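User: quick one
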Amino acid sequence: MNILNVFSGMLLQIFSSPLLIVILIGSTFLGIIFGAMPGLTATLGVALLTTLTYGLDSETALLALLAIYVGGVYGGMYTAILLNIPGTAASAATAMDGYPMAHKGQAGRAFGLATTSSLIGSLVGMTFVALLSPLIAQVALQFTSYEYFLLALFGILISGSLTSPELAIKGWIAGLFGIWLSTIGQDHIQMYPRFTFGMHDLDNGIDVVPVLIGAFGIPQIMIVLESKMKLGSMNAKSLGKLLPDFRTMFQNLRNIITSAFTGVGIGAVPGIGEDIAAWVSYGIARKTSKTPEEFGKGAPEGVISTCVANQACVGGAMIPLLSLGIPGSPPAVMLLGALMLHNVAPGPMLLKSNPDFVPQVTAILFAAGIAMWICGMILSKQVIHILRVPQTLFMPLIAVLCVIGSFALGLHVFNLYLMGIIGIISYFFIKLHLPIAPLVIGVILGPMADTALRTGLKTTGGSLWPMVDRPISLVLVLIIVAIVCSQIPFINTAIRKIFSRVKNKLAGAY
Amino acid sequence: MGREIMSNHPEQMQESDKLAQKTLEQERLIGWDFVFSIVVLLFSVFIVSNSLTMPFSGTVGGVTTTWYESPGLLPLFIGTCLFLAGLSVCWKSATENGWALFCQHFSEINPTGFLLSGGGIISYIFVFISWYDFFLGSFVFLLFYIGLYYLDDEKLSRRLIAIYYGTIIISVVLFLSGVGAYANRVVDFLTDWILIACAVLLITVMLQFATRKGQEARRKVRRVLIISCVFPAILVPTFRYFLLVPMPKEGLVVERVMNTTYYTYLAPKKQVEDGNLSDDQLQSLDDAF
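Assistant: Done. Structure below.
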């Protein structure tokens, strides 16, 4: 009952304040622009807005940041449907059927379906945040230092494996590099300076926000400008009338439920973004469809499943962030950085000391979902007008915003140098097919891993036995070992051989 | 049948071209993986050797350390993991002829795109932001960067690059030799005039280009000039006076023009109120500061 009171109280507070409504709608609209413009991402949007929210109270800042996150994930479908160029990686799957629908003259219908599906996904994700976060946080309160260390390690490994499918080890290298970056500066227990090279600017360690802006912003600007990407012409009139098409939505109820669960589940895995959620749910929708041959030719099911999963993933990503302090997706990494700036440290202790936090976040997600739907249904044509601005004109301005954004948070020019260096390193990472998500997750989770490992060892007098003594840590150890072994060729081959022998024997027995 | 084969032929060609391109990219990546793994191995050796210099036992600075409390523990763990990961990538790449593929494709590397896009941003951060007025630095950077990519003309680009990097070289020489700092001590913000000169040159070159190329180019150049000027003109006051964020460097424009204008004419005036404070209250007020 108390949760509902806090939830409704927060909603009332948002919708009764003209300023908060302006912030909500403005941030959502900005998010849609960031999502829709190829090259700009929801993560970059959250990163740049963080600077502007520094002077706001934490609730208003969270409202602005979650609104731009939700808007950014949704906005990607604009160019995906109209031009077959996904605005974000998350909307690549939407282009599969959205673009053929637009080609058939059903752009308005595709937009309506995508917008309403996104709202449903957002609401489902929000529900899971409200239900699961307190439960997981309750369990997490039982965690010891070793579990936190293993959780951080698991987060980096799983994120590295899934974001670098060609060679998972490259993803792990990115994650390990991120942890190394986090060890720069005086350590938190003995204040011993590590890897500072005599530079006093590094004594306090590196600020997270410039690293995140550098990692996500600079390489993106460079790559887009190098490619001299030009968008095709977009006509706002071609959009026609936007229709929510509730009948089609109702007919796809099962598809919606499956996609929402897929989105939440994938979102909850550390570091895995909306793109994977969208593709997996697209695959499931296709497999379970009665007319799979229609997929790729303008099937509304394809658009619905991807958009529901995209937005449900936002909620999913918030679950580990709120309950464990581990971000579920790249924009959630940025959100964690922003919350830290506002002296809010998500995790089980926060939910214990401030139990209203989860219902407040849930209410903000709800409000952001509604704002996204309203912006999507009313302001779509305006978005298309803005998208006509060439990228070559837009990207240099983003570079200036990155610079002032990195500087504004600490007022250190050194942060700008750091941003520049990390930006160039990230550029090479992208060129070498190394994912950026594990790197930034490593930077975020590094301090937790360091402190947890040493505290755990200190508590047990240097014994690692409690790592396999407790059920949760044992499960984590087994998962980590399995992830690592899956990348060692001879172990992988041996396991496959064992499985095939067992299978053959079982087949022989029957 | 023959017509069908004919009509399929270009598609098949396109498919095979795509396949060849993919294979080529794969080969390049394997070659780069080999070099990357060597870098990772060297980097991991550096981490391990550096972390071994950190206290693992004994008393350092009054703090007694055992191996499991050592600040070098996590770096050692990371270094070891990175070494193993690097070794694995190196081995995989070496079995696929990584070194040979790298040597084969090395001559195809064209760093122009990276040097222009990355060089622009890096020079903006390390030179303009560090030494010049933020407004002027951003204005010149935007003129150059937008002009380079948006106007997209080879001859113009060459001239823009010459002017921009010429300014960068002059700045580096001036400031590293100490002449820049001396000049600014003699006359306030004297070096900011270098950027103004650079901006005038960039604008002149663009206007020449616009006159030569006609209506469309004139429209584009006008757009570049307006955006390059208006964007920092909005951004700086927003951060400086609304978010109260001082600029990294305030000079000829931010300090002399904006701050003077704002604090003289626009800033809310300080209100002084007469207060009847007792001696004790005045004393406490003094103590507070």
